[in-house]
């Protein structure tokens, strides 16, 4: 499943049609017919997003937004409102009430699904930043947030024929206190002193996709990749509108540049960007020296352990499994003995980079000690964790690492995997122990392999073991050549 969605609508036909469309896109769908039922269902299923009809038997969709977010304990819970008509006043009122988006019936499936994907991506990215900030606070490294905020820099980029661009700039200046500038497309990737906070791409007549082609360039630009991007399409550009969301646009106006609606969406995107910028800055500045390994740049054990506690709490709240992987380099001692410690350091650095490059942004990678690494995977099933671990083993085995002297060396991994099951109250310390047992079992099997923690049973206390048995590698710890 790509996500959990709660559909709230008093009309059974509407719920069924929407469930069929979302299920076909691999979403897990739950349903409710009223505000009260929605809150009850929300507490049971903990969805990632809620789609709410504007009118309900016991409340309104707008009134339900705040109650849902209060129940979630998360002001960022994505909520989309459905309206029976395309009334501009109703649409603006819903956006002002906190709806992340407003869709009018009949629904355009292409654009709707693109909107949902975009909202869920944004939620996951923000949740990961918040999770890491929570870990930082648990370590006692939090600082008071400054209450002073400078005006945001908004860049309007009109393409094709857009005669209303200057009047739109004037309308926005009337509604906002931020700095708003007009920029031609050929200068959109440049900035004078500071990068823009928000870039608004305005598709005009005859643009022939010029605005759409700017999106990936802006997203890949080092200085502007964290800017919020809003794409304004014309009513006949539904394909471009859907593509823009999938190519990295944070928000969309699908019926041309309406100044009042654009101002509302700009304020929300500016607020989100400032929050995300603050969380990124907190993480980079406050944690680097205290909780990062100076050799590899990865997080160290001091960061990883409280992060796992936060991850376990979130998994319990959301009802989702997570995975812990303990990875150990095979025969690493022989690398130091044969090639020197400088080569060993280079290997650790290269392995660290390879792990980061081949895991999800939401996955935590930490150096857990010596040549041992820990990977924490939120929202990971047993099968996904196993497949990921096996892929990492293949990747290391098939791609030798370069040493400082120009030589190459093949390094392999042994990996133990443990799964934290939602609802079972698994403690991170117990999962680390299970993953460590599985790691030793992987070493016993000949290394360069993966062992799942639930296939390895804890050793009995020494007094209960048969005396005739010789101690195994599990009992003695490490082999003569290292793990």
Automatic annotation (TrEMBL):
Its EC number is 2.7.7.65. It is an enzyme of class 2 (transferase). Residues 4-120 form the Response regulatory domain. One of its GO terms (molecular function) is diguanylate cyclase activity. Signal peptide: none annotated. InterPro entries: CheY-like_superfamily, Diguanylate_Cyclase, GGDEF_dom, Nucleotide_cyclase, Rev_trsase/Diguanyl_cyclase, Sig_transdc_resp-reg_receiver. This is diguanylate cyclase. The lineage of its organism: Bacteria, Pseudomonadati, Pseudomonadota, Alphaproteobacteria, Rhodobacterales.
């Amino acid at each position: 499943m790509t996500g959990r969605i709660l559909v709230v609508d008093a009309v059974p036909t509407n719920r069924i049609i929407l469930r069929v469309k979302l299920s076909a896109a691999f979403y897990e769908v739950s349903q409710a017919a009223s505000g009260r039922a929605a809150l009850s269902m929300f507490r049971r299923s903990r969805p990632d997003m809620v789609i709410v009809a504007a009118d309900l038997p016991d409340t309104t969709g707008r009134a339900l937004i705040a109650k849902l977010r209060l129940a979630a304990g998360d002001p960022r819970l994505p909520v989309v409102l459905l309206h029976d008509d395309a009334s501009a006043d109703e649409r603006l009122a819903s956006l002002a009430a906190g709806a992340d988006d407003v869709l009018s019936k009949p629904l355009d499936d292409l654009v709707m699904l693109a909107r949902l994907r975009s909202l869920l991506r944004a939620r996951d990215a923000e949740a990961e930043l918040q999770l890491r900030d929570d870990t930082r606070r648990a370590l006692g490294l939090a600082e008071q947030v400054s209450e002073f905020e400078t005006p945001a820099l908004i860049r309007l980029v009109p393409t094709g024929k857009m005669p209303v661009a200057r009047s739109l700039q004037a309308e926005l200046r009337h509604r906002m206190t931020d700095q708003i500038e007009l920029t031609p497309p050929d200068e959109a990737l440049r900035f004078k002193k500071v990068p823009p906070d928000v870039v608004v791409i305005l598709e005009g007549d005859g643009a022939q996709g010029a605005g759409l082609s700017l999106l990936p360039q802006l997203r890949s630009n080092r200085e502007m990749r964290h800017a919020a991007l809003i794409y304004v399409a014309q009513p006949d550009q539904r394909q471009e509108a859907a593509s823009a969301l999938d190519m990295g646009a944070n928000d969309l106006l699908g019926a041309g540049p309406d100044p009042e609606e654009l101002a509302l969406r700009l304020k929300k995107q500016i607020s989100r960007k400032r929050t995300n910028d603050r969380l990124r800055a907190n993480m980079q500045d406050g944690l680097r020296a205290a909780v990062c390994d100076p050799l590899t740049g990865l997080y160290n054990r001091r960061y990883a352990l409280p992060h796992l506690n936060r991850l376990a709490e979130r998994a319990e709240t959301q009802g989702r499994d997570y995975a812990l992987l303990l990875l150990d380099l095979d025969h690493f001692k022989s690398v130091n003995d044969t090639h020197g410690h400088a080569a060993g350091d280079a290997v650790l650095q290269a392995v660290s980079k390879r792990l980061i490059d081949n895991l999800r942004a939401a996955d935590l990678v930490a150096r857990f000690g010596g040549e041992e690494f820990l990977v924490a995977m939120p929202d990971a099933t047993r099968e996904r964790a196993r497949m990921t671990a096996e892929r990492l083993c293949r990747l290391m085995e098939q791609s030798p690492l370069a040493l400082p002297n120009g030589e190459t060396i093949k390094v392999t991994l042994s990996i133990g995997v443990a799964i934290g099951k939602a609802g079972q109250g698994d403690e991170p310390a117990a999962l680390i122990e299970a993953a460590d047992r599985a790691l030793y079992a992987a070493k016993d099997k000949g290394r360069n392999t993966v062992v799942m923690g639930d296939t390895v049973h804890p050793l009995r206390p020494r007094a209960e073991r048969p005396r005739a048995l010789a101690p195994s590698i599990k009992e003695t710890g490490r082999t003569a050549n290292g793990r």
